[in-house]
């Protein structure tokens, strides 16, 4: 099969000379291009340097794109055929190129060879480092025409634009659920496959995503890197700190449409919503009693297990619920308000409540 040799001529400034004609010569497949090939004679070619001639020998017969090596053409051709010969031995994900597989394997090994020279943060892909670098420049050249919000990457602007159109162009072939982002669809599809490729080395637990494994590993390490600047309480995840801060700010962004009651957490709103219905999806496996939220079931199970995790630090008596411990302290131990604020003299039965109270002075 013949292939095409393409030549693009550039001027002395490196710009493509639109006036110069790109010549194409049909070469027999049995005679691949060699270093002896000379650039075609172009009118006025004496004005051009040899390095200003770009050679692209191998042209895709499907779309016309040209490449300097046959291997690059072969790799490109898989876009048209759909062939993905390089498969991950851990999760089975397949790729068109070997380097794509090598990059993917870092999600399993945790290797992050690309380091930001500004802050030292490391990444598994060079493209991720390039994206991150914009954080330090603060540059956001891409603006949304609808709301004016600006972005550092064009792809982020495109992704954001879907929030205004409401279009969910990425649809799950299994359940029909739509998404505005391809990566969100890909994440969702793991629910149907049941695939959990990320395994904890310290316990048998597995996860669908690397970030979930990372969060889980903090249980074993005891690491709590996210600290509240008001009361000092620390958390394993940033989202938990965000929710916690609402205790100090009083923010309750989730509102019940039935009665108007507000909540600081969406999960609390969902649980509350069941009080307006007869739905009780959480059933005890020991006595078949049903509850409208998971926390109520968890508390109830202690009736069967005998678990009493809340111990009184004064007399040692233990209780199955924190509210029972607080009641015990109030009625048994001198009114139960032995924790006193050194600024205003207000008394509390619980050291935690005193700590939260002191935050109001911060």
From TrEMBL:
It is found in: Nucleus. The keyword rRNA-binding does not apply. Residues 58-85, 86-113, 114-141, 142-169, 170-197, 198-225, 226-253, 254-281, 282-309, 310-338, 339-362 form the C2H2-type domain. The keyword Oxidoreductase does not apply. Its main location: nucleus. Keywords: DNA-binding, Metal-binding, Nucleus, Repeat, Transcription, Transcription regulation, Zinc, Zinc-finger. GO terms for biological process: regulation of transcription by RNA polymerase II. GO terms for molecular function: DNA-binding transcription factor activity; RNA polymerase II cis-regulatory region sequence-specific DNA binding; zinc ion binding. It comes from the Eukaryota. Signal peptide: none annotated. SUPFAM superfamilies: beta-beta-alpha zinc fingers. One of its GO terms (cellular component) is nucleus. It holds the Pfam family zf-C2H2. Belongs to the krueppel C2H2-type zinc-finger protein family. PANTHER family: LD33778P-RELATED (PTHR24390:SF244), ZINC FINGER PROTEIN (PTHR24390). This is Zinc finger protein OZF. It comes from Stegastes partitus (bicolor damselfish). The gene is LOC103374694.
């Amino acid at each position: 099969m013949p292939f095409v040799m393409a030549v693009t001529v550039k001027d002395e400034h490196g710009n493509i000379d639109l006036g110069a004609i790109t010549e194409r010569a049909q070469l027999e497949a049995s005679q691949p291009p060699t270093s002896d090939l000379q650039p075609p004679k172009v009118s006025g070619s004496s004005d051009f340097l040899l390095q200003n001639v770009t050679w692209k020998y191998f042209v895709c017969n499907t779309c016309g794109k040209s490449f300097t090596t046959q291997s690059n053409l072969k790799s490109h051709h898989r876009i048209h055929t759909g062939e993905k010969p390089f498969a991950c031995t851990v999760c089975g994900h397949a790729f068109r190129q070997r380097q794509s597989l090598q990059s993917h394997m870092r999600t399993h090994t945790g290797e992050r060879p690309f380091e930001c020279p500004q802050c030292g943060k490391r990444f598994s892909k060079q493209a991720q480092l390039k994206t991150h670098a914009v954080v330090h420049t603060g540059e956001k050249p891409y603006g949304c025409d609808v709301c004016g919000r600006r972005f550092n990457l064009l792809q982020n602007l495109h992704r954001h634009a879907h929030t205004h159109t409401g279009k969910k162009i990425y649809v799950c072939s299994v359940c029909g659920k739509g998404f505005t982002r391809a990566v969100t669809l890909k994440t969702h599809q793991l629910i149907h496959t049941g695939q959990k490729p990320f395994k904890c080395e310290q316990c048998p637990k597995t996860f669908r995503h690397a970030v979930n494994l990372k969060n889980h590993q903090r249980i074993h390490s005891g690491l709590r890197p996210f600290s509240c600047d008001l009361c000092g309480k620390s958390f394993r995840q940033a989202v938990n700190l965000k929710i916690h801060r609402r205790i100090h700010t009083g923010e309750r962004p989730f509102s019940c449409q039935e009665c108007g009651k507000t909540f600081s957490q969406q999960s609390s709103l969902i649980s509350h919503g069941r009080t307006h219905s007869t739905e009780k999806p959480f059933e005890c496996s020991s006595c078949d009693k049903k509850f409208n939220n998971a926390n109520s079931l968890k508390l109830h199970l202690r009736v069967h297990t005998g678990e009493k995790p809340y111990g009184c630090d004064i007399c040692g008596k233990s209780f199955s619920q924190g509210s029972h411990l607080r009641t015990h302290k109030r009625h048994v131990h001198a009114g139960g308000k032995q924790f006193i604020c050194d600024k205003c003299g207000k008394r509390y039965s619980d050291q935690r409540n005193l700590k939260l109270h002191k935050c109001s002075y911060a």
